[in-house]
Amino acid sequence: MKPKILVTRAIFPKIIEYLSAHFDVEDNQSDEVYNDAELMRRLQGKAGVFANPSHKFASELFNACPDLKAVCTMAVGFNNIDVPAATSAGIMVTNTPDVLNETTADFAWTLMMAAARRVSESERYLRAGQWQKSKYDDLLGRDVHGSTLGIIGMGRIGRAVARRSMGFNMKVVYHNRTRLTPELEVAANHAQYLALNELLRTADHVILVLPYSPAVHHLIGAEQLALMKPTATLVNIARGGIVDDAALIAALKAGQIATAGLDVFENEPALNPEFLTLKNVVLTSHIGSASVSTRDAMAYCAADNLISALSGERPANLLNATAFKS
């Protein structure tokens, strides 16, 4: 008899077919977002779950689902999963790193350039029929080339962002929990390590690429925004909660920084509605990895992690090694 699994949200039909060769699959192609009680109910008797970041996996759920052996999320971030609680329950947890590095780095640049050059504002201006003639000072933005790029979080995606700066003749400064090796700094366009506050004072464009944890909640708040240049751009492709959204809105309204590009928000998708009133921010709906090939690769990566976990093999992207029982 095949192990039973739950796929918590809609996914490519070919992934359901792929999983069905190994498992008895309960899918959710209607894409209902289960509440906690419904998710717990549907996980009864399931050995594994192909998970989505929209659902929380906490100790209460693990305690109520004694058959559960693996939670495999189709995401890099896993702050929706209580990994220590899963480990205590003997449940493996996996994510999908690496397959989205380059695509997400591309999107960081998309947001940075769109924000700095006021692309969204210009499009709204044009669509509203306001472009009747051109003036010398219409929608003047800030240059990207020749400027200083600050990256907070210098993991694989951060380094991919830095490499792209070479063609723009930019200076790269970065802040990270631990300093990179000299070799990695050279590969990341000779990136210079700075303390966080010094980076914020120095950079013309700041990109957040660090994982979320309670330790970095509101890492960028009113105090940090006050350190930034009034001409600066802030880009968040990391996770909501790293930035204090209310403080950022206040800073954008006051002209404390020039502009922002945001793909993630606190309490998403219920973002702060004040963002929608601002002209000097580019807003996207958490689509940093949303290219056809990358989402395809993420889905297969999560599926392969689940197949390995429930067939007695160590998953390639196991986050809690002590939960694996060979």
Task: Describe the overall structure.
There is one protein chain. With 326 residues, the chain is an alpha/beta fold. The chain folds into two domains: 4-99 and 292-323, 3-Layer(aba) Sandwich (Rossmann fold), CATH 3.40.50; 101-283, NAD(P)-binding Rossmann-like Domain (Rossmann fold, 3-Layer(aba) Sandwich). The protein contains twelve helices and twelve strands. The protein has helices at 13-20, 36-42, 59-64, 83-88, 101-116, 119-127, 156-164, 182-187, 196-202, 222-225, 245-254, 292-309; strands at residues 4-7, 24-26, 48-51, 70-73, 92-94, 148-152, 171-175, 192-193, 205-208, 233-236, 259-262, 281-283. The protein has a seven-stranded parallel beta sheet, with helices on both faces. A five-stranded parallel beta sheet has the order 2-1-3-4-5. α8 (182-187) links the parallel β7 (171-175) and β8. α5 packs across α7 (156-164). The longest helix has 18 residues, at 292-309. The mean pLDDT is 97.
Structure summarized in a few sentences:
The chain has 326 residues and is an alpha/beta fold.
How are the SSEs placed, and which strands pair?
Elements: E1 4-7, H1 13-20, E2 24-26, H2 36-42, E3 48-51, H3 59-64, E4 70-73, H4 83-88, E5 92-94, H5 101-116, H6 119-127, E6 148-152, H7 156-164, E7 171-175, H8 182-187, E8 192-193, H9 196-202, E9 205-208, H10 222-225, E10 233-236, H11 245-254, E11 259-262, E12 281-283, H12 292-309
Parallel strand pairs: 1-2, 1-3, 3-4, 4-5, 6-7, 6-9, 7-8, 9-10, 10-11, 11-12
